[in-house]
Design a protein that fits this description.
about 80 residues; mainly alpha; globular
Amino acid sequence: MFHTEEESIVTMINHIAQNNVSAGSESEVADIVENHITKFWSRRMKKILAEQLANGTEEFEPAAKLAAERLSAKMSASA
């Protein structure tokens, strides 16, 4: 199955959230996801993530969506 780059970004953030679900609450998992993306994702990947969140075209895990919202807000504040 072929995915667009945008779909792959959303799949990746969802996998990060799913792999850390045992960390605790949704907010705690979102903290881990946000930290991971901040450390390891390129600026371009973060931009695509913010665009996908704004477009609402992809399905996000709840903790992944919370992390994406936090990151998007930080990106907007620093722009």
